[in-house]
Specification:
This protein has about 200 residues and is mostly helical. It has helices spanning about 5-25, 35-40, 45-50, 55-80, 85-100, 105-110, 120-140, 145-150, 155-175, 180-195.
Length: about 200
């Protein structure tokens, strides 16, 4: 049976992870310190080190948790509809939600800081992108022949890589205050129209 102190530790760790993810998505990995987290959470840096001894430990935990949550979201999309177009639209909406909240894709931000990440965090980030590519490949392989519609794509995997690159890149180019969500969705809707008219 879990006692109150175990519950408090879990709750504090969860708050740290939530805050770290939000700050990284808005500022970038290297622009977030334990001091920033402590100030946001009204904790001491020692309390954060208790749960996550190093920033590499924290980064790895944030990405691993994000991968699990994202896997659940993708599974829910697959369960809700069999239509490729609707699945792709709902998938884009996951990213649009992050943009609406003022951030960028967690792993997209981390990939930009790749040279300064620990090996453990880099592996988690690469795993995230592998997860996305594998899922999109399976979705596109179930639909009509997307390779015939996307010039230069010889397989559903190449089409998946193109789609993921467009999602991530469009987050960067549409991260402006004016009509960011509308233009982001419109940009990706054009690609979806090509893939699954």
């Amino acid at each position: 049976m879990e006692d109150a102190s175990d519950t408090d530790r879990t709750s504090t760790a969860t708050r740290i992870l939530d805050t770290a993810q939000a700050l990284v998505q808005r500022r970038g990995y290297n622009a977030v310190s334990y001091g920033d987290l402590a100030a946001e959470l009204d904790l001491t840096t020692a309390a954060i080190h208790y749960h996550f001894p190093s920033k590499a430990d924290l980064g790895q935990a944030v990405v691993a948790r994000h991968r699990r949550a994202n896997a659940e979201e993708r599974a829910a999309i697959r369960a809700r509809t069999d239509a490729v177009r609707e699945r792709l639209t709902q998938y884009v909406d996951l990213y649009a939600g992050v943009l609406k909240d003022g951030g960028l894709c967690l792993c997209g931000v981390l990939a930009a800081d790749n040279a300064t990440l620990s090996a453990e965090v880099r592996r988690e980030v690469q795993g995230f992108f592998d997860d996305q590519t594998d899922w999109l490949t399976s979705i596109l392989a179930e639909g009509a022949d997307v390779t015939a519609r996307l010039e230069g794509c010889e397989s559903p995997r190449q089409a998946a890589q193109l789609f993921l690159a467009a999602i991530e890149g469009a987050m960067l180019t549409h991260r402006t205050p004016r009509n960011q969500l509308r233009t982001y969705r419109a940009t990706l809707r054009g690609l979806i129209d090509t893939i699954a008219p």
